[in-house]
Design brief:
The protein is α/β, with parallel strands linked by helices. The protein has ten helices and 14 strands. Strands 2-1-3-7-8-10 form a six-stranded mixed β-sheet, sandwiched between helices. It has a three-stranded antiparallel β-sheet with strand order 4-5-6. The two termini are about 20 Å apart. It comes from Pseudomonas iranensis.
Length: about 325
């Protein structure tokens, strides 16, 4: 079972409000509810200030409930105000009834609740709020050391001393997350992991913009969402047949090219599959700029480093 809690707060009783956090939470809940093919993904609870009054007590109760019970993945997403209190060396999430630092929900408390949830295999915490990058630091050491528990992954919009900016419809960070979850961060198999999410966001933000923070303590990345594979699995399974060794060259000749008189339909079917692999950087032509010329000149094609990786996965029965 996979469950998720999404929190978005625009309106605050005693401090200035925000504009896009409710939209952020709703959009994240929507995209993670199902995989791209419509299969169920996360069982969601969505809390927004547009529908509820989200006091500190209510949020703490809901977060504690998220990190209870037995499941494979529990995911927390928060969009709203965040703060770092230098006096207590604490990062905090800000509920609607916040007045001062003592009213904040300490991020270390959230991490402790998650860490104690030993029957939950994977805990994912995504924070789109200002000064959220302190999540996971060891306060007592006042350093960049980490207290990320086993099975935990933290992804934040910015570093400890940075703001998390809002865009026209979504926060800058969440807007990029949504692009990534709709397929921008998918691998060849169509899987989107926390690591690929971070890589997508990190590459999209320049060195002078807010910098996302990624911390994890897992032995294997989980898939947060699946989209259509870039290359069908039945084609990927043929890589070890086409390339007996990772360094092998698959010989081509004019019989593989449909425009040539020597064209053989069976070869054409194989060539179409090889070209699909070439388009996604698994295969490259030998001594030719394009696969077309590799066939005409009877050279061949070979695996790239990425192709060799997926050949190895096929050999090990990963798909």
């Amino acid at each position: 079972m996979r469950k998720a809690l999404f929190i978005g707060i625009n309106d605050y009783a005693h401090i200035s409000g925000l504009s896009g956090c409710c939209n952020d939470a709703m959009a994240m809940a929507s995209v993670l509810k199902t995989n791209a093919n419509g299969d169920p993904n996360f069982k969601n609870v969505l809390l927004t200030s547009a529908e509820d009054y989200l006091s500190r007590q209510k949020l703490e109760d809901q977060i504690r409930e998220l990190f209870s019970g037995d499941c494979n993945v529990a995911l927390l997403y928060f969009a709203g105000h965040g703060s770092f209190d230098a006096d207590t060396d604490e990062g905090m999430l800000i509920a609607q009834d916040y007045r001062n630092a003592k009213d904040g929900i300490r991020i270390t408390d959230i991490l402790n609740w998650a860490d104690k949830a030993t029957r939950i295999k994977n805990k994912v915490i995504i924070l789109d709020c200002c000064e959220s990058g302190s999540a996971g630091e060891v306060r007592a050491l006042r350093s960049e050391s980490s207290m990320v528990g086993e099975g935990m992954t933290i992804l934040t919009a910015c570093k400890k001393a940075e703001p998390a900016l809002e865009g026209a419809q979504h926060g800058v960070f969440t807007g990029l997350l949504l692009q990534a979850l709709h397929g921008g961060a998918a691998n060849i198999l169509g899987k989107i992991t926390p690591g690929s999410l971070y890589s997508f966001v990190d590459n999209a933000l320049g060195p002078w913009e807010q910098r996302p923070v990624f911390k994890t303590n897992v032995s294997q990345f989980i898939s947060l969402r699946e989209v259509s594979p870039l290359i069908p699995k039945d084609i990927l399974r043929k890589l070890p047949d086409w390339f007996v060794e990772a360094e092998s060259v698959f010989p081509l000749d004019p019989s593989y090219e449909p425009t040539e008189k020597a064209f053989a339909p069976k070869h054409g079917e194989i060539f179409a599959q090889l070209q699909k692999c070439n388009r996604h950087s698994l295969i490259e032509p030998v001594d030719a700029e394009h696969m077309y010329y590799a066939a005409l000149n009877s050279t061949g094609c070979r695996l790239t480093a990425l192709g060799a990786y997926y050949r190895e996965l096929a050999l090990k029965g990963h798909f």
